[in-house]
Write a structure and sequence with these properties.
Blueprint: E1 2-7, E2 13-19, H1 21-24, H2 30-43, H3 103-119, E3 123-126, H4 136-145, E4 151-155, H5 160-166, E5 172-176, H6 182-187, E6 190-194, H7 195-205
Parallel strand pairs: 1-3, 3-6, 4-5, 4-6
Antiparallel strand pairs: 1-2
Helix pairs in contact: 2-3, 4-5
Subunit structure: Part of the 50S ribosomal subunit.
Family: Belongs to the universal ribosomal protein uL4 family.
Pfam families: Ribosomal_L4
Length: about 210
């Protein structure tokens, strides 16, 4: 099992924690990680893009000039794709981009993502994150103490003071254990977990 240092909110090391290899020490499957990221981005697409083909553009019912003798190239419609105001050749239409990943594949992808952060020394465990009030400056000070610039903070329970204090901090996102996803983990330069979040992740995914 991997041993990781535990820090307090002042950025001082206060102990170590053993991470469960069933979650934080698996063999990294890059293909599954890639598929999970692609799936999330595809599922987030609205799919409402639309343009008109030549059959949908109004006008163009008659030939603009006779077939022969004008010196122009022959034309059948002013709504052909080569004309200004004409239709689009392969016009996009509203569609659903989403696709499905099996539950086992999603779990394996998340474990691989977390393992890659441990292997890259990009995972920090803090003993707790507690604020008496909603204040962005307090949260920023903690991130500075932990030397986190572009990070993802994972907490076990929905602590309003933590979430609201982090909301205006650039390049730092917060998430709960039950909403953690591969894309956010891989996008973050550093993943910050509370001890409670580690315990909950191991309970759910081990």
């Amino acid at each position: 099992m991997a041993n990781v240092s535990v820090y307090n909110m002042e950025g001082k090391e206060v102990g170590t924690i053993e991470l469960n290899d069933a979650v934080f020490g698996v063999e990294v499957n890059e293909h599954l990680v890639h598929m999970a990221v692609v799936q999330q981005l595809a599922n987030n697409r609205q799919g409402t893009q639309k343009a008109k083909t030549r059959s949908e553009v109004s006008g163009g019912g008659r030939k603009p000039w006779r077939q022969k003798g004008t010196g122009h190239a022959r034309q059948g419609s002013t709504r052909s794709p080569q004309w200004a105001g004409g239709g689009v050749v392969f016009a996009p239409v509203p569609r659903d981009y989403s696709f499905k990943l099996n539950k086992k594949e999603k779990r394996a992808a998340l474990k691989s993502a977390l393992t890659s952060k441990v292997q890259g020394s990009s995972l920090i465990v803090v003993d707790e994150l507690k604020f008496d009030e909603i204040k962005t400056k307090n949260f920023t000070n903690v991130m500075n103490n932990l030397k986190v610039e572009k990070g993802l903070v994972v907490i076990a329970d929905n602590d309003v003071n933590v979430v609201m204090s982090a909301r205006n901090v650039a390049d730092v996102d917060t998430t709960l254990v039950n909403t953690i996803n591969v894309y956010d983990v891989m996008k973050a330069k550093t993943v910050v977990l509370t001890k409670d979040a580690v315990a909950k992740i191991e309970e759910v995914y081990a």
